[in-house]
Amino acid sequence: MTFAEWMSAVQDRTEGALATLLPGPSVLPARLHDAMRYAVLGGGKRVRPLLCHAAGAAFDASPAQLDRAACAVELIHAYSLVHDDMPCMDNDTLRRGKPTVHVEYDEATALLVGDALQSLAFQALADTAAVPSAERRLKMLMLLAHAAGSRGMAGGQAIDLAAVGQALSLPELEQMHIHKTGALIRAAVLLGAHCGSADDAALAALAHFANRIGLLFQVVDDILDAEASTATLGKTAGKDAAQNKPTYVALLGADRAKAFATELRDEALAALATFGARAVRLNELTRYIVERSY
Length: 294
Prior knowledge:
- The chain has helices at about 5-20, 30-40, 45-55, 65-85, 100-105, 105-125, 135-150, 155-160, 170-180, 180-195, 200-225, 230-235, 240, 250, 255-270, 280-290, and strands at about 95, 100.
- It is mainly α.
- It has a two-stranded antiparallel sheet.
- A hairpin with a 2-residue loop joins strand 1 (about 95) and strand 2 (about 100).
- The chain has 16 helices and two strands.
- The protein has a single domain (about 5-290), classed as Farnesyl Diphosphate Synthase (Orthogonal Bundle), CATH 1.10.600.
């Protein structure tokens, strides 16, 4: 199977698994459930599920178990986007090529959508369908909770909001994105590995890889925000500059930001060297993240 075929297969199975997990639009409260499905289904690159499946495949995890872990991390990601787009945060009107949830529905519904998606993520991961071992499920739940909370994604968003209009140093910018973007990407990789046979040494190497790939994703995102069109991105282009947010492009300039992305790519690939051919999908995903156009 080529990388493109594998990626499409994982995206399709993730879409199907998410559609099954999410309550049907006719289930009460119907408007909330309809909005949850609107927020999650039919869009997005599914980078976090792809990373989860790629890491799990390296350690012989079953696709069915990986579906649960992949859905859990994607539901957290989707909830974060719904809340980030709200007027009290980034006040954006476009996401994945369609109106944001608070625009399509209303602000109160968008708030509840995020709350409900977060709860559903932990429900999915706690189910025995994720992994049979209760001890391992508990570790995975702790991992996801840490990644999503004040010492992870939510904390990174708080730092981001406080940094508007500020001139951050490169270490400060990295610290912000290690939390805001990197924490959930790291969780996706490690959750996938936990579904398989990864030992402590493998998990440590994967954590280093994930830290590099998390920063890499954000650097490329900043470059695309500055250079790609709204139609290509499916979200408002140039938003970071318009809101005077600190970004890698603003700090380094476009050329140096691209060079930094290349450095991060090489560091991520070097971290995978110990796994050899088992990490082929993680290698391919690393290159995809650098080369993506949206």
